[in-house]
## 1
Amino acid sequence: MNTIKLHDLYFKPFISKEEIARIVKSLAKQVKEDLPKDEIPFFVGILNGCFLFAADFIREFNGNCEVSFVKLASYEGTTSTANVKQLVGINEDLTGRTVIILEDIVDTGATLQEIYNIFRDKKVKQLKVATLFFKPEVFKKELPIAYIGKSIEDKFIVGYGLDYDGLGRNKAAIYQLTAPPKMKNIVLFGPPGAGKGTQATLLKEKYDLVHISTGDVFRYNIKNKTELGVLAKTYMDDGNLVPDEVTINMLKAEVEKNANANGFIFDGFPRTESQAIALDAFLAEKGAKINGMVALEVSEDLLVQRLLERGKTSGRTDDTDEEKIRNRFNEYNTKTAILKEFYQEQGTYYGVNGVGSIEDITDSLSAVFDTL
Ligand code: AMP
């Protein structure tokens, strides 16, 4: 399971859906066992948070029952407020009935207090509370809770009906508030020859990041005649992109090799939308993300000249032939350039002028890196 982000906050996996299912089943069993034979309980779910718990609990309850809901609101953001409002009440006649409240979570007890108030004058036979989660550290009331699924520490949780500011209710598991990821991950972006490699080498020292250049990894594999190298060469020689699946798996392996990194500078990756999607998902598994795509903006004509110049000394066969260079730009323009929009939509695209001295460009890039 992955860390998730809701609004501005991060939540880590806490209670699996399997464990929840076990708890719910056992609660339903206990409730049934304590009821006199043939007694038809009246379950009252407390909305909104209880809707998944109530649905699962009722299905696990082995016997006839009636079901209704009240809607209360007590939370604002992640801090419990003592302010409980009843938004939808109970209309049924509950005289002489055994009423069992289904709550997703009891923390300070403010909501529970309101529930006891609501049912005080309903002439019920008995009122019992079944809560899926309970926070003993913060519970301030003297009110009885007949059934507790699981006691948890006082940390904000979401999922399985519980929300943070509206989001998270549809997660099957429970997640707990956690610190934001510390890694700094940057995509250094730009067309072939924009200077990504040169700048990444300088910036990785300055920011103590690991530099992963997929082009370099491919060239290393070609030099060492690995299976991956032999495969990649057929594409690279013509200036075509290596297939996504191969590249994505290779990138993941490179990241895994550096488990303790403070973060990464990705250079030459992602180059397609599906690579970008795969990278987001892969980092999310680690509770991390791309902090920014920093792009070196340089016009194509200037770059062809630069690459031909570089080809005289770089030893790169894809730098010496103008037709191959043009094809690399074609690949860039048709498959890669759209990633600008992909990151713009996430609000993480930063364009930097890539024309000028190496030092000036490093300074411009650093100015962006410092804000990420
Ligand atoms: P570079 O050193 O980044 O200019 O990459 C040189 C060549 O390696 C490219 O023209 C592609 O053939 C291949 N390559 C590097 N990175 C990728 C990638 N992310 N996806 C597909 N092919 C790549």
## 2
Amino acid sequence: MGHKPTITDIKERITQARSVTVLTGAGISADSGVPTFRGADGLWKNFRPEELASPDAFERDPRLVWEWYDWRRELLSTKTPNAAHEALVELEKRIADFWLITQNVDGLHRTAGSTQVSEIHGNIWKVRCTNCGMVESNHDVPIDILPSCTSCQGLLRPHIVWFGESLAREDLDASFSALQNCELLLIIGTSGVVYPAASFAPIAKEHGAFVVELNLDPTPNSDLVDVSFQGRARDIVPLLVTSSGNRG
Ligand code: OAD
């Protein structure tokens, strides 16, 4: 019976890899103080997603939805990337063929300096016009509740993929290509229950990738992946992916 690979074994594999894809979820930002969705302090413990994060909810009560997003933007405006986000920036620089897929809308990967990233659920710091479709950055805290488009005065909405909506074609294409062509997939801090991201581990495995999961708790992916580590992103990710392996 083979032994379970250690963090050092996996670090070695990552160092040798030509192509690495990383999938992140709320757990990586939890270490920056951002609430997760399904954890003990998770947002979905206190709020019903279909009342706040769906096209129907926005149609019914855009003010309520904007108030919730304004509250989240205010909370996020005080948060900064942690050692795990930073370690992935270093990894991007070292690996020839690298892609980061994140379900997080907080923008912390880009703030840290990641550039090869698909934010598949959108970005809370972007707004989109419900009339003309224009997307633009908006960092106002607080934001005008019921903000309007600078070009056509239409009602703006958060540029987020809500329940019942499809991911952008270009994000799906980039993600599938990265999953199908990587030697190694590293999954960090996601409960693995929201589709399509929940299907990313099996897709990468079917295409021959070695799949590593790091999460605080076991997930539905834990039995399917090649190695599953339990721990905090901020502690383990730097050990796995940085050349020094120890960022204090
Ligand atoms: P979840 O809240 O469902 O899961 C977060 C996972 O991170 C859990 O399995 C935790 O055990 C783990 N975790 C918590 N703290 C951690 C830490 N410090 N280090 C490592 N792991 C930790 O969040 P997601 O899987 O990202 O959709 O949720 C997926 C989607 O559901 C989100 O993108 C969001 C939500 O509805 C949209 O915003 C559109």
